[in-house]
Design brief:
By secondary structure, this protein is an alpha+beta fold. The protein has eight helices and 20 strands.
């Protein structure tokens, strides 16, 4: 999650029409105006010009949910092949963002450096590095001494080993939002803020349209890109989506001159504690793994004290810094920490792109392309999304992603 940056103003629409009106019909309605919904809309319109696509955002601006609060990291260092392949494809798309959709995207390849302090993690990460390298990711294995040389400003006596990938880094989540929104405008799509889906109309077991406070749209396809709120949309069509919201928070410090320009994203894996340079200060967060699910989006001051005690122990320089900003947002978490992508059996015309478990911003570009293929071509083909389909939860429990922060 990253600090507050803002997209379009409340009520602004992509087609230049009145913000408080809705079209009576559409080919595709997308519930959710974060990076997933906007990427899906853009790729649908690019793939089939003239398609009538409407994106409905329940909040006052696009990306105002989890996207605007994301820490902005992207990485290839995952434990499962499907997540690594998603990253490879998505990062390549982000590097071409200036050409497609044709908008600026701030990216910085500072690398992710995972700190390992438990022997059991060392063994698992060794296997992960082998997998990542097999798939073309240039992950490096580092011993404790090399890590301490690279990070002299941190206290790392207990670090056994770690991994570093120079192709990992940081980006601006709202650049993604604004770039895709501009592309949707250019291609004739319709964007509406302050317009939640309140009812989904079904007819004969298929999607017939949606009802909002501004009126009704008849449409044969509904894409659920509602992120942490995706399960609520699922309930409207009688589908129980195993996606739960979990609060995550971070803070940004005042300037710390001793932090070098090339400071990487540093992750103390055992503690789910992370640091990266943000402007002239440090952005640091730590996940509370014991917090129950819920829609709380205000920072928890008690957890901040626990977090900062751990953060200062790792980086003593933080003790001399002030707090510039505090941010809390929601992870959309599935039982296996992998997203749900594709059509949902039992309700014709209902698709889901949600449940990214903290990895949504980095996988937003490729996820939108895969959804466009799934809807228009009948099946995603740039990448086989079989491991991400909803049906996996109807069988034996799937393997979980190990590298969740």
């Amino acid at each position: 999650m990253r600090g507050p940056e803002f997209g379009m103003a409340s009520g602004e629409s992509a087609d230049g029409g009145e913000a408080m009106t809705l079209p009576a019909t559409a080919d595709v309605v997308i519930a959710g105006g974060g990076v997933m919904g906007l990427s899906t809309a853009y790729h649908l319109l690019k793939k089939q010009p003239g398609l009538r696509v409407v994106v409905l955002e329940k909040g006052p601006f696009f990306g105002c949910g989890s996207t605007s609060k994301a820490a902005g990291g992207f990485r290839h260092q995952f434990a499962t092949e499907i997540n690594i392949r998603l990253s490879l494809l998505s990062v390549a798309m982000m590097e071409r963002f200036a050409e497609d959709p044709g908008a600026p995207l701030a990216m910085r390849f500072c690398g992710y450096l995972f700190l390992l302090t438990r022997e059991e993690d060392v063994a698992v990460f060794r296997d992960q590095v082998a997998l990542q390298r097999r798939l073309g990711v240039p992950t490096e294995w580092l011993d404790g001494e090399e890590i301490r040389r690279r990070l002299p400003m941190m206290r790392l006596d207990d670090v056994i080993a770690g991994t570093f990938c120079p192709r990992d880094g940081l980006l601006s989540p709202m650049d993604l939002v604004n770039g895709y929104a501009a592309g949707i405008r250019r291609l004739g799509g319709i964007l509406r803020t302050d317009t939640p889906v309140t009812v989904v109309r079904l007819q004969g077991g298929r999607i017939a349209g949606v009802i909002t406070p501004l009126g009704e749209i008849a449409a044969p396809v509904l894409v659920n890109a509602a992120g942490a709120w995706a399960a609520q949309i699922g309930e409207m069509v009688g589908i129980s989506l195993p996606i739960r919201p979990y609060r995550r928070q971070y803070l940004i410090t005042t300037p710390i001159p001793e932090i070098p320009e090339d400071f990487p994203m540093v992750i103390d894996f055992a503690r789910s504690l992370y640091f990266h340079r943000e402007g002239e200060g440090i952005l640091t967060g730590m996940s509370n793994r014991d917090e129950p699910p819920g829609f709380r989006e205000q920072p928890d001051p008690e957890w901040e004290l626990i977090h900062m005690e751990a953060a200062v122990a790792r980086m003593p320089l933080l003790e001399r810094a002030g707090v510039r900003a505090r941010v809390a947002g929601l992870y959309e978490v599935t039982p296996d920490a992998h997203p749900i992508l594709g059509r949902i059996p039992g309700v014709e015309g209902f698709y889901v792109v949600a449940g990214f478990s903290g990895h949504g911003v980095m996988h937003g570009p490729i996820a939108g392309l895969l959804m466009a293929e799934e809807i228009l071509d009948g099946r995603a083909h740039t990448l086989d999304i079989a491991p991400l389909r909803y049906e996996r939860f109807l069988a034996s429990p799937p393997p979980a992603e190990y590298n969740v922060i």
